[in-house]
From TrEMBL, chains A, B:
Keywords: Oxidoreductase. One of its GO terms (biological process) is tyrosine biosynthetic process. NCBIfam families: PRK06545.1-6. InterPro entries: 6-PGluconate_DH-like_C_sf, NAD(P)-bd_dom_sf, PDH_C, PDH_N, Preph/Arog_dehydrog, Prephen_DH. Belongs to the prephenate/arogenate dehydrogenase family. Residues 1-282 form the Prephenate/arogenate dehydrogenase domain. PANTHER family: PREPHENATE DEHYDROGENASE, PREPHENATE DEHYDROGENASE [NADP(+)]. This is Prephenate dehydrogenase. It comes from Mycolicibacterium aichiense. One of its GO terms (molecular function) is prephenate dehydrogenase (NADP+) activity.
Length: 314, 314
C-alpha cells in the first residue's frame, strides 16, 4: 500500500500497517516528513510520481492522508499514474472527498474512510502505531462502492486495530459535525471568552482544560475540517445555538437552566451506556449489503473481525 | 475545625485537614455521609447543634460545604450557636454566599473560599485527601475581611496542598462563569445536540468525550452553581453566543471560521503559557493588603507558603 501524506494520521497508518506486516511506501511533500519516516526505518519519498508508479506496479491500495485543500490536485496525479489502484482516504469529511473523487473519475475504485482518532499534535513525529487501537474507523457504504475495494480497506482498518463503522458519506458528515466539528468551535469560543476575563486563567482547572483541549489543535486543521463540512456543520451549530439561547432566556427570565442541564446530562448518560454490538451476519457483496451495513452502523454496530465476501466464504 | 457538609468537596477537606494533623469534626445531614466518614475513621455527626456547640467551645474554624440552597438556613444556626467562630466556605459562587453571610450578621468572621477542583462524582465516597493538591483555592479579599480570619483560612488551604489565589468575590464570580459555568452549559448543549443525530454516538471519540465530560456531573450541582451565579454567567454566555454567531455568519457567507479558530487557538496558547509567580512580598494586615493581594491574584500570583501577618513576622 501507499500512504500519501505522513502527518499525524497518515504517519500513524504507515506505522500501524507496516507493524501488521504490510509492504508500504509513504509519500510526503515536505522533506521533514519523509526524512522523519526514513529515519524511523520506513520507506518514504518526496517524489509523488515515484510513489504512484510504485503503487501502480503493484495495484497497491492508495491511502489519501493530506488536508482537504490538497486533495483535488493529488487525485488528478493519481488518475494519471495509478488510476487502477484501489483508493481510500483518512480525511475527516466524506462528502467533499467523494465529490472530488467523482470529479477526478476515480469513483469506481474508491471507498471513503475516516479513523476517528487524533491528538492536538501534528506531523510525522506525533504519529503512533497504536493511535487507532479500539477507535471507530468509518468506511463509506455509498451506492457506488465496490465490494472488493471495501474488503481491502476493511482489512487495513482492522490491521490498524480499529473497529470498523459502516456509514454513508452524508450520515458520517452529519455525525462528525456534531461530535467533532461542533466541539472544536465550542472549544474555541470558550477559550476566547475566558481569555478576555481577568483572573480566568488564574483559576482555570479541569472544566476549562477539558473544554478547550481541542482548541490547541493547529488552526489550519480545524478550519480545513469545519469549512469542508459547512453544509452539515451549519444546521448542527444552529441547533446548539438554539439550545444555548433557550437556556439563556430561561436563566434570565426564571433563574433556571434546568431544561438544558437535564437534557444534556441524559444525553451524556445515553452515550455512556451506548452499546457496540458486533456486526457478524452480513456478507460483503450480498444483496443490499451496503444498505444493511449502513443500518447496522447506525444502530451502533461495529466490525471487529473481517466480514466474509460473497463468493469467498472461508 | 468543623466541616459542615461531607460531599465531594467537604469530605475531601475533612480528609486533607485531618491528614495534615488537624482536629476536625464533620457534620452531614444525611446518615449515609456521616456513617461513611465514621466508617473511614473520621469524627462525624448528623446532629448540627452538636457540631456547632463543639465548634463554639473551641472557637474552631467552620467550613460551609453545602449546596448554595442550604446556606441561609445553616447560617442562622451558626449565628445562634457558634456566632464567634471564624467562618469560611467552599462553595463555587462567592457573591451569593457573601450576601447571605451579611444578611445572617456573620460578615466580620467570614472569608469566602473556593477550591477549584472537582470530579464528575459526588458524595462522601468520591472524596479524596489529594483532591486539592496543586489546585487553585480562591480566598476572598473583599473590603470587610479580617486579617486573622484570612490567615486561618489560608493555612487550611495550604494544609490541603492547594495554592491560594486571592480575589474579590465579584472578580471570582466573573472568572468562574467563564472557566467553570460556561463550560458546563456548552458541554450540556454539545451532548444534547449530538444525542439527536443518528450515528453520532457510534462515532464519538476524544473531542466529544472531553467536550461533554462535565455533562456527567449531577444536574442539581450544575444548576446550583450556574443559577447562583446568573448575574455573571449571563454576560459571559452572551459573549460566547456572540462569538459563535459571528462564526456561523462567517461560515455561511464566506465559508470561513478563521476568525474564531485563530482567536480561540491563541487564547488557549496564552493559557498554556500563563505563569504563576509566587506572592511573597505582601504581609496580611498591612496597609492596602486586600487590594494588593487582589491585584497580585489578577496577575496570576499564587500563595504557595504562608504569608506573614502584620505583627507576627517570624
Amino acid at each position: 500500500m501507499c500512504v500519501l501524506g505522513l502527518g499525524l494520521i497518515g504517519g500513524s497508518v504507515l506505522r500501524a500497517a507496516v507493524g501488521a506486516g504490510r509492504e508500504a511506501l509513504g509519500y510526503n511533500r515536505s522533506v521533514e516528513g519523509a526524512q522523519g519516516a526514513r529515519f524511523d526505518g520506513f520507506s518514504a519519498t518526496t517524489d509523488l510520481t515515484e510513489a504512484l508508479e510504485w503503487a501502480a506496479e503493484r495495484e497497491a491500495l492508495i491511502v489519501l492522508a493530506v488536508p482537504m485543500p490538497a486533495v483535488s490536485q493529488l487525485l488528478s496525479h493519481i488518475k494519471d499514474v495509478a488510476g487502477d489502484c484501489p483508493l481510500t482516504d483518512v480525511i475527516s469529511v466524506k462528502r467533499a472527498v467523494l465529490d472530488a473523487v467523482r470529479k477526478a473519475g476515480l469513483l469506481d475504485r474508491y471507498v471513503g474512510g475516516h479513523p476517528m482518532a487524533g491528538t492536538a499534535h501534528s506531523g510525522w513525529s506525533a504519529g503512533d502505531a497504536r493511535l487507532f487501537a479500539g477507535a471507530p474507523w468509518v468506511l463509506t457504504v455509498d451506492e457506488h462502492v465496490d465490494a472488493r475495494v471495501w474488503e481491502q480497506v476493511m482489512h487495513l482498518a482492522l490491521d490498524c486495530q480499529a473497529v470498523v463503522v459502516p456509514a454513508t458519506s452524508d450520515e458520517h458528515d452529519a455525525a462528525a459535525a456534531s461530535i467533532s466539528h461542533l466541539p472544536h468551535l465550542l472549544a474555541e469560543a470558550l477559550a476566547e471568552t475566558a481569555g478576555e476575563v481577568p483572573l480566568a486563567f488564574a483559576l482555570a482547572a479541569g472544566s476549562f482544560r477539558d473544554g478547550t483541549r481541542v482548541a490547541a489543535t493547529a488552526p489550519d486543521l480545524v478550519r480545513a475540517m469545519c469549512e469542508a463540512n459547512a453544509e452539515q456543520l451549519l444546521p448542527t451549530l444552529d441547533r446548539a445555538l438554539e439550545l444555548l439561547n433557550q437556556a439563556r432566556a430561561s436563566l434570565a427570565d426564571r433563574g433556571s437552566v434546568a431544561e438544558l442541564v437535564e437534557a444534556g446530562h441524559a444525553a451524556r448518560a445515553r452515550y455512556d451506556s451506548f452499546s457496540r454490538p458486533q456486526i457478524v451476519t452480513i456478507a460483503i457483496g450480498e444483496e443490499d449489503w451496503r444498505a444493511e451495513l449502513a443500518a447496522a452502523g447506525r444502530a451502533g454496530g461495529v466490525i471487529r473481525s473481517a466480514l466474509p465476501v460473497l463468493g469467498s466464504r472461508r
